[in-house]
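Hello support,

Our group uses your service weekly, and this is the first time we've seen a run hang past the timeout. The protein is Proline--tRNA ligase. I'm not sure whether the cause is the sequence or the server load. Input pasted verbatim:
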Amino acid sequence: MRQRHSFIPTLREIPADAEAISHQLMVKAGFIRQLAAGVYSLLPLGRRALRKVETIVREEMERVQGQELLLPALQPADLWQESGRYEVYGPELVRLHDRAGREFVLGPTHEEVITALVKQEINSYKRLPLLLYQIQTKFRDERRPRFGLLRCREFVMKDAYSFDTDWEGLARNYEAVYQAYHRIFERCGLNFRAVEADAGSIGGEGGTHEFMALAESGEDVIVSCRSCSYAANLEKAEFQKRDGQDNGETSTGSPEKFHTPGIKTIEQLAAFTGTEPSGMIKTLLYLADGRPAAVVVKGNHEANETKIKQWLGAETLELADPAVVQAVTGSMPGYAGPAGLASPVLLLVDRDVAEMDHAVAGANETDYHLRQLRPGRDFSLEHVGDFRNAQEGDHCPHCSGELILERGIELGHVFKLGTKYSEACGARFLDANGKEQFFIMGCYGIGVSRLLAAIVEQHHDQNGMIWPVETAPFHVHLIIVSLQDEGQLTVAERMYRLLKEAGADVLYDDRDERMGVKLKDADLIGLPVRIVVGKGIAQGIVEYKERQGEVLLLEPDEAIRRIHELAAAGSLNETE
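Update from on-call engineer: The timeout came from a worker crash unrelated to the input. Re-ran successfully.
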């Protein structure tokens, strides 16, 4: 493509509202533009890069016998009501009515639609197993869209669904797609981990894994072991119960109430009393499906709402508002404690709290706390469990090694759904004995547009992006210094023709611009190879530079030969 005629609106300054480096660089380099919060236009460079990623995804899905289709984004709401997810999905589900008053949703995912389709078309075990996938725009009304393509309200996703006769078949499909995902992310040049995960609103009856790109900008936390292969996201992460949670001499005295005016947080209480947060109890009030519940964890720990929700078997879980806190505790927020709650509620005690000898906690009275509070004596230990997040230094549940925490970007998620949706939608087939059975399903998603942002998060420097060859919008950035120099123009035009014939995608900067502008744009866009045709052509040489390499002075034919070698190796194959 000739850059003179291209739509690549680069910027000199970083947009003020762009937080993540991928957001900054993709806007600055003219890959994306925002239309509304969480809604972006993909400009030509962004679209080309997305097509490269889509090609990788398609190749690997078809390698495992996936068949591509395209399902409607507009879905009847009654499908979601039938599956039981209409209310569970919450405000992220975009809902609307047609002119006849029928309710629809804009698809955030397609479990209901694909199940309805297969129910209609497949009725015999002889037509199974089946693996169907699509690449399509999805819609989720995110509460706080941010970080450019990393968290959007409209985005491109690959979702796949497997249908099997039994759990063994599901295991084979799951493993095939699991390995395909490894190949996809490796080809995209990403440093990633596959981690155990929570199924969330998708649900299911079997295992589930998330694929995480390691990045400081990631909104997810990955817990992994230094000594073995164990890895899980923070919501799912398990750890061994610590022995000896002793926090001092055993308390023999009764709880002592003391005045703490305006002291509402653990940090304030630690400064006020000189007690370490590990010697305190934090009491959190939740509404689980609208009913209040109290959860207590140590002051230096954080509650894990996924674990709490699962223990309670709740569909929804949210922190209680001040009115509920006051009704349950008899005090203003900040003074709740596990002993002497004003209203009887279910009390969940984290197992580390249960091991404490004594602690400081809220007194359920505004401006007061208690000392010498003893678990089991001063409040019930009827419901004890793991209700907290893993922390650095906790011990691995598999090998007792030390756990570490890293940040990551979720790239994809694979689920063993079992019969969750086939039962809800009445989707059955006849087995070899002529008996009706529910389809055994799996679900496999990749955030395709998010992949672009994740690649940039891991591949950039102070000058711009650094695209891996397979995902680069173009492979070669050919730059001519002076359009008025007949020698430069002749060589540049010839190289442009020969490079394209070699199968390379070439962006030819033939703009009438200052060389400094061209070089800055080239570094910003970050294509794998840059070739500059300038004054050196008088001596028969051009500048050849890989994005992070040194400038090499080569004859034009030698530069072309190097590109030919890359093409012959299959790393610069044309994708258009």
